[in-house]
Each structure stands twice: as structure tokens, then as C-alpha cells.
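Quarterly update, task 2.4: NAP-bound model.
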Amino acid sequence: MSRPRILLTGAQGQVGYELARLLPAHGDVVATDRATLDLAQPDAIVAVMREVRPDLVVNAGAYTAVDAAERDPAAAFAVNAHAPQILADEAKRSGALLLHYSTDYVFDGSATTPYDEDAPAAPLNVYGRSRLDGERAIAASGARALVMRTSWVYGLRGRNFLSTIRRLAAERDELKIVADQTGTPNWARTLALATADIVAQGLPYLFERAGLYHFSSTGATTWHGFATAIIGDAQKPRVTPITTAEYPTPARRPAYGVLATTRFRDAFGYELPPWRAALAACLVAGPDE
Ligand SMILES: NC(=O)c1ccc[n+]([C@@H]2O[C@H](COP(=O)([O-])OP(=O)(O)OC[C@H]3O[C@@H](n4cnc5c(N)ncnc54)[C@H](OP(=O)(O)O)[C@@H]3O)[C@@H](O)[C@H]2O)c1
């Protein structure tokens, strides 16, 4: 089996950084970041796709600033909707496979049991709408694609909920954390490892499984529960539950975003670890182990 040529976008992001370290075991990887491929530049995407001629495109680049997207929808749609459309059109043209990530924020959060892939999407904010447009553009392109919706991504690099809680824990005696939004935290490395595992099975295996998947650790918690788990046994700070109404943000967020992962398990034969196990592994790992 020849090694696939893999184009990776967003290689400085939480998931993209981990993928840039893992994917070279399974193919010849061209890893791009904002400096080498600006996903807001359609011509640049076309040029890179035609120069690299990838067999597989892993699109880990995304506009993930949920609140900032409310002020600048054009920027969010350029990266989250238009860029995937161009990647998909180019993939269709060349016969490449596109592996793309999306989000639980495509849902409105009115459910009380885990969302499956066929549940109606109804995003509450600009970020969710831009990601849903990206999913739809990929579907409309006719390209073969794996679209992996995930949620609440954290890691040991950059700014995310885990790093924010750790920083605030060192500064404050009390943290007030929203306790009425339920979802599933996902360690970026868990997502990258699972992605690399399926890429390792080879392109025919991936092509056969093209489709939309919920791709997440199992279990569920609230942001308050997540913060409490991050703080662990430390005496300080106290983690106090508050409501979403007490912590207003520019973007509305779904109250419930747990993803049912049965389809992924059935197609790929395994589950991602429970979120608490992934968090425990993360807390003892180094950023570059
Ligand atoms: N983060 C979450 O909580 C979350 C939740 C659900 C789903 N997801 C999805 O999971 C995937 C991976 O997320 P992540 O947490 O790894 O995101 P991330 O850490 O924000 O990484 C995204 C990367 O894309 C880059 N990017 C943004 N605009 C770009 C542009 N115009 N051109 C090139 N690169 C650009 C970012 O660069 P800059 O840092 O320079 O902007 C960043 O390095 C995304 O599809 C995301 O939507 C994430």
C-alpha cells in the first residue's frame, strides 16, 4: 500500500498541532497553518490543493472564537463555510478524500438525550451557523468526506477552558462556573489519536466509511463539573455553580450538546475514552510528550 499524500490545515490549532505530530507515521504530510495557507483566501486554497495534490485533506483549521464570530460573521463564514466548500470542490475534482471537523453547536440544545447525526440542526449562534454551512457545502459538493462533529475541545497548548481554569485557580479563591450547560469535554490529543488511528487503516477503508459522524469522548458533564474535575482535590479555589443568565456572553450557547457516538463505534469498531479518563491522562501528560 503506497503512502497517501496528506494535506493538513490548521496545524497550529489544538487538534491540528497533535495531528501534525501523529499523521506523518501514516502518510507524507504537508502541514499548513495560517501563515502558509490562509483559509480566508480562496485562491490560496485552490493553489495549495493543486500543488500538493493530496489523497487526503484533513481540515483542522477553523474559526473557533464563538463570541467574536457574533461581531464578525464574514470572518467566521469565510473559514468555516467557504473554505470547506473550496476544499471539498477541489477534493471532488481530484478524487481526494476530505476529513473535516464540525461541532455540537450546530444543535440548539433543546434535547435532553444525546443527539444522533440525523437530529435536526438549528444553530443558536453565528459560529454554529457557519459550521453548519460548511457541513452542507461539503455534502453538496459530492466529494467523499468524513465529517466529524466534536465538542468542548481542550488541550495543553493555547487558550481553552482547561488553561483558563488552571490560570484562574492560581489567582482566585472562588470560581463561578456555568452549571446549566451540558456537554462532553474532548482532549485534542484524544481526537487526534483517534483520527490517526483511522487514517492508519488506509484510504480504501476511509473511503468506504465516508459520512457524518459524532466523534466524542463518552459521558457528559457541565462546565461546572468540568472545572471541578480540573481542580481535582485541591483545597482552593471553591467552584461555585452559576446559571448561564448570570454569565452573559455575546453568543448564545446550547444548553445541551451531548453527541451520541453509536454510528462512529459501529463504523470504526471502537469508542473514544470516557471524558474523565481522557482528562486524567491529559493532566499527567506534558504538552509535547
Ligand atoms: N475548540 C472547541 O471547543 C471545539 C468544539 C467543537 C468543535 N470544534 C472543532 O474541532 C476542530 C478543531 O478545533 P480546535 O479546538 O483544534 O481549534 P483551534 O485550536 O481554534 O484551532 C484552529 C486553528 O485554525 C486556525 N485558523 C483560524 N483561521 C484561519 C485561517 N484564516 N487560515 C488558516 N488557519 C486558520 C487557527 O489559527 P489562529 O489561532 O491563528 O486563529 C488555529 O490554529 C475545528 O473544526 C473546530 O470547529 C472545536
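Highlight for this quarter: Residues 10, 12-16, 34, 37-40, 60-64, 79, 101, 103, 150-153, 158, 188 surround NAP (CB under 6 Å).
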